[in-house]
Structure formats: C-alpha cells, structure tokens
Amino acid sequence: MPGKRIVLITAAALVAATSVALAAPPQPPADHRFELQPFVGYRLGGSFDLDAPEATGLDIESSLSYGFTIGWLLNASQQIDFRWSRQDTDLDILGSLPGLGDHLSGFSVDNYLIEGSYIMGATDDSVRGFVSFGVGATRFSAPDGFDGSETKLAASIGGGAKITLGKSIGLRLEGRWIPTFFNSEQAIFCSSNNGCIASARGDLVSQAEVTTGLVVCF
C-alpha cells in the first residue's frame, strides 16, 4: 500500500540521519546544547474516507495549531527534537449522517514526534536552513458526544530556517507534511445514542502545518 511504503521510507531516512549524527563526534556550539521553542501555526488538510451510504467522508477543517519543541544539539549541524503539536478543530461531513447533519464540533488532533534535523550553513550565519524527518504518533480525539479516540503511527517530513536574534534567542520558521496511517475498514467515533459514525476506508490521513516561534537556547 502507498501509505506503508511512505512510512518505511520515512522511518529509514530518520534512522539513517540519526545514525550519522550519533557516529559523528559531538561538537555542539560552545555555549548551548539544548533548545526550547513554544510555537503557533496553522494546520490544513486531512480527511477520513467513510464507508457509509449517506456520507463519503469527514474533512478536518483547517485551523490554528500550537505546541512546543525540545531540541538536543548533537553537534553544529545535527539536532534531535521532541515535538508536540495540537489542533482544535471541527469535522465537516461530506454528505449527511442520520441525526448528525453535516458538521461535528469538538474534534482535536495531537502529534507526538521525534525528529532528526540536518542544519545547513556555518554556526556564525545569522540564517540557517534545515531539513527534518520524524516518526511518532497522532491522536485523533473523538468529537463532542462520541467516544473512540484513536492513536496511530505518524511520520513527518519538513524543513525551514533558524534565525539568530541574540546570543541565547532566535526565531524558527518551518513547515512539514504529517501523514498518519489508519487501518482500513475500522469503525470510528462511537456513542451510546448514535452508534458508530461509520467505518474509515483508506490508510492515510494527510495534513500539512506551518509554524513559527521564538527559540530559547541554554
């Protein structure tokens, strides 16, 4: 399946990048080894294909996102991050479901990712680009009135720029693609009153996100 090939390729890329980073002699900047970045952003895309006669799918509405990144500088050009990002949003029903209409509120998406980054340029450059690869999990919280929150394998591919503003502070701009891998034909979002909404059909929920925030180095 395309989704399985993507996750295998992404995981292999992350393992390769991490192996290279760990094999290199650690050479962090003289003053700093860690970074902390709270961020805000915007996330778009993502849908569940449904196996239901009344509705063909559930679209995740684009909305603001927020979170934080904790980074460990392995050396001057390689970094490992833990990243948490959350999106509070709604679901648009493509069609209608009995008793539910065409809209579900109170839906949220949380990403938990371990990412490896390669940072380009020299340490004294004021702007340095980077590329990143990651693996982790996405948690889809059920909309209001439903149970059945799901946690699934996720990956990330992204890049951006780190801008130095001072000795211990900077700005990080980035964008990433986050595919989450979903089991085909799985019942989702159930309640005692309405039963399960439908069965998800397909194996990939694909989202993109752009974020920015100040980075504190220590």
Question: What's the architecture, going by CATH?
Answer: Beta Barrel
> How many whole angstroms does the radius of gyration measure?
19 Å
Number of individual domains: 1
**Per the principal axes of the C-alpha atoms, what is the gross shape?**
elongated
Description:
The structure is a single chain. This protein is mainly beta. The protein has a single domain, classed as Porin (Beta Barrel), CATH 2.40.160. Helix content is 10%, strand content 65%. The chain is built from one helix and twelve strands. The strands form two sheets. An eight-stranded antiparallel barrel has the order 1-4-5-6-7-8-9-12. Strands 10-11 form a two-stranded antiparallel sheet. Strand 8 (150-164) and strand 9 form a beta hairpin. The chain is elongated, with a radius of gyration of 19 Å. Residues 1-7 and 9-29 have low confidence and may be disordered.
